[in-house]
Queue: 2 jobs
Job 1
Amino acid sequence: MFTRQKILHIISSWENGAANELAEFAVRLSRDEFEEEICVLAGSNSRKVPDVPITTLNQRWTWDISTFFGICRTLRRFRPDVVHTWDAAAQRYAAFQCGTQYILAEKRDAGIPKGKLQKYVDQKTRCFIVPRKDNSLPDDKTIVIPPSAIPMSCAEPIPAKELLATLGFPPVKPSGDYYPVFQPQYEPAQRTYKSIPPHATPFLIGIALPLSSEHRILDALWVFETLNHVNLNFHAFIIGDGKERELFLRCRDRWKLFSRVHFLGNHRKAYQLLSRFDALLHLSPSTEYSGTILSAMSCGIPVIALETPESREYVLEGTTGILIPGNRDFRFYRRTAAKRLLYLLENEELRRSMQQAARDRAQNEFNFDSAVQRRIDVYREYLPER
């Protein structure tokens, strides 16, 4: 009699950069061949995955004894054939609790120095799934699966004013005329220079990152304050949640951006708004959340991103998006992000060409279905025969 193979996915929290990828991947596994469950170490059970049970352990500290016992209970109850860990924290907890189960670990950060503890954890891991070649891992235990664009709801666009009304945000009339920065070039010394009325249709700008200072959310708020200062007609949506949410809300209100900048939380419906944006602003230096760039590109959204090894791989400068040079101070990031964003919004032809180029590149070079099939093949290779 054929028995379905059991897969246990472990992830640190739903705020993790791989959370959307895990949720989409779990839905696509065949229920005839696999039985699966998701174990979330920390946070609330705010995500629902159809037909997949989810266990939340409420981890409080980096090393939480109650979380160890929770994983142990889950392993005894579910008895998985394979434990698939989606980040470093999940890998460490699994390595100390798993017995005969195979551990497949997703490794997204290459070349990180290893201590004795991490070396032990890697020894307990049967296979590493990496987005690109990693010389710090043994070749016989490494499988390269290129990064993929998570499919998003890319419905037909609706007028910006209609979308704002649906979300309950009233349109805001700019306080004065708009002074173009690039077309025509703004020259304050030129006395004959004339301003123009603000754009009738508001631009929609998105950010999809956890609310943490390390992701430069404060720099993004400064950029939006600059756009408001030149009377650009825009609305910004920040998708994500975090412990510093109240700090950013206070900064937004102090800079009088409460009618322009909206915090939408971490709900899946908020991520479906990606396809509605005119541009995505991604100033985070973290590699963990670079998958958001690919998700936006798959919906045909031009991306303005901080230059990192990952963003250079995803974004073709001037073709599918715009890169901001790294290794500078925060003043440079803020000024450059504001200029590049204004340049993109003022050039409608450039936006349209980037939309098509970004969509084509995401579908052709970073296809999600092929990445799903590669992981299924890994399961079949390492699962015991029944």
Job 2
Amino acid sequence: MKAVSTDSPGERLGSYNRRTFLAGLAGTSAAFAIPESCLAFAANHSQAEPGSLPETKAPEPPPPPHHKIRFSVIGINHYHVYGQIAAVQRGGGEMVSFYAKEPDLSAEFQKRFPQVKRAASEDEILNDPSIQLIVSAIIPDERAPLGIRVMQHGKDYLSDKPGITSLEQLAQVRRVQAQTRRIYAIMYSERLEVRAAVKAGELVKAGAIGRVIQTINIAPHQIQNPGAGPRPAWFWDTSRYGGILCDVGSHQADQFLYYTNSTTADVTASQVANVAHHDHPNFQDFGDMMLHGNGGAGYVRVDWFTPDGLGTWGDGRLFILGTEGYIELRKYADIAGRKGGDHLFLVDRHQPRYINCADVDLPFGRQFVSDIVNRTQTGQDQAQAFLAAELVLKAQKQAKVLTFRP
């Protein structure tokens, strides 16, 4: 078995440098074209009129996967599991079985995947030597204990976020991962499965905005999607989901580390509140935190106040400040502007650019399956995944609890 790579995120993309990026930009493509209306937008400091720019294009077919693996699912308590499954399947994974304790969730899952066997128990899956990977979106506080059992059975693990809900769990997971050398991956989908975020990573690694100084993440969420059923009891209990910074903020901690290329980091300050959901006293609907690392600084705000009028679950925005420019992402919506999501704005020393990222490839699934086969860390750096979890767990533990006047 090959040793697990310890390359940093920056080293993994070292061959794609600033000169390569600028040469490609000079050659231009549809993705890098600068629409006149975008230049007018920059000059006038106002939103372009809806429909003034090309509409979102369908993404190009992804390249075929290079490897095949067999995987199973244990725990389907969050709908994120379907995105996790889709990523692994794109990468060459064959889903062969699943197990869930809840009959209603199992029935819905079987409607989506009628060809997949429903296992009688968790042990049936863990003891199947043909299965290489376990995917899970079980209730958050159960994810780390399950992941430990998975690794101890010689399998790799892909958890929904948050992958770990306490510092005690994190210490246990790190110890077992070091002992077993299995992969304990956490699906930070707001970077790994968002096309604009993937493109931003390419631009940052190419040096398009110089050295990154700071990331600012604004991550509002919708408390109840229209037409969806009520939230389960565990959703409202910080002891089950870890708190708002641990849960929602884990995406943003991952992005901070990745875009600043920080290998060490800590929490500067953090705070949380339950502003408007006092019927659920163990819930938190607002939080923010400041982070600092050896590659840059970060600020994160998360909340559950997306209004129904937006038309989607959240207006996720990311700002990446560099020494020679900045990038802004409108991941899921560009309010009163362009349709759809995956909007990227790049401003450098020369001009502003708008990049429609709808046709950007999502490589994580292929990379992750390849990592399982080759024992590498291309799709996700193990140390970085754990450090992102550590940051939000520290932020959650030390957060000042705010109380606002009604």
